[in-house]
Amino acid sequence: MNSHKSFEKLGFIPRSICRTTVRFWQQLLNSSNFIVLEEFRFSRYQTIASLKCLVNLILLPYFIYLILYYSIYFFFPETYWFDQISQLNWTKKQQNYLQIQNKQDQHFFDLFLSHSSKSNIESCFYRKLIQTNQNKIHTKFTQLITNFCMFFIFWYLLIKSTPQLIILKSFCLELIYNLSDPKKAFLLIFSTDLLVGFHSSQVWKLSLEIFLSFLNIHLTHDCILLIISIFPVFLDTIFKYWIFRFLNKISPSTVAIYHNMIE
C-alpha cells in the first residue's frame, strides 16, 4: 500500500481541478474502489489527528493550568505572599490601596447594620480586612507564577504539535473549500462583522478586559480604548488585503457574491 501525505500544499492551480483530473484517469483504469477506500482512510486519519491537536492545545493546557495553579496555591502559604507586598511598585500599591478602601467601606457598612458595638465592629473589620487582603495577594501571585509557567508549557506544546497543526490547517481548509460560494460569502461577512463591525468594539473591550484580568495585568481605561480603536482597523486592513490578493485568485465567484451581499 502506498503511503499518503497527511496534508496537501496549496498551489497556483486549485486542488479541486487536480483531483477531478486524477480521479477521472483513475476511474478509466478501473481503480475507483481502491481510491474510495484510500480517501476514506485518509479522511479518517486527518479527522482523528485534528481532534487530537485540538485536545492537546485546549483541554490539556487547561488541566495543566488547574494542577499547576492549585499546587502553587497550597504549596506556598499566605504569609509568604503577604511579605512580598513591600516589593510591589507604586501602581500596584495604589491599586491595592483603593481595593482595601472599598472593602473597608463595604465591611464597615455591613457590620454597622448588624447593630454591633464599636469595639466589635473595629475588631471584626480589621480581622476580615487582613484576611481578605492576604487571600487577594495570595491569589494574584499564584496566578502570576502559573501564567508565567504556562507560557513556556504552551510554547513547548505548539512546537511538539507542529505536524498536527499542519494537518488541522489542511482539515479546516478542506471544510471551507467544500462549502458552496454563498456559504463562503456568508461566513466571510459574519467573520468580518464580528471582528471589525460596528458593534465589535464592545466585544473587543470585554475580551481584552477578561484577558488582562486573567494575566493579572492592569491597564488604564485610556489604554484599553486606544487598543480597541487601533486593532480592529488593523484587522480590517488585513481582511481587505487578503480578499484582494488571495481570495480573488482562489475563488472569484465568492468575492463577487461577497460584494453583492454587502451592497
UniProtKB/TrEMBL annotation:
Instruction: Kindly list the residue ranges recorded as spanning the membrane.
Output: 53-76, 141-159, 185-204, 224-243
Q: How does it sit in the membrane?
A: Multi-pass membrane protein
Keyword Chaperone (UniProt): no
Location relative to the cell: Membrane
- For whether the record's keyword set contains Membrane, the answer is yes
Task: Name the source's superkingdom.
Answer: Eukaryota
- Which biological processes are named by the entry's GO terms? proton transmembrane transport
Q: Name one Pfam family in it.
A: CemA
Kindly state which keywords UniProt assigns to this record, in alphabetical order: Chloroplast, Hydrogen ion transport, Ion transport, Membrane, Plastid, Transmembrane, Transmembrane helix, Transport
Q: Name one GO cellular component term.
A: membrane
The record's comment on protein family reads: Belongs to the CemA family.
Q: What is this protein called?
A: Envelope membrane protein
Which organism does this sequence originate in?
A: Codium arenicola
Q: Which gene encodes it?
A: cemA
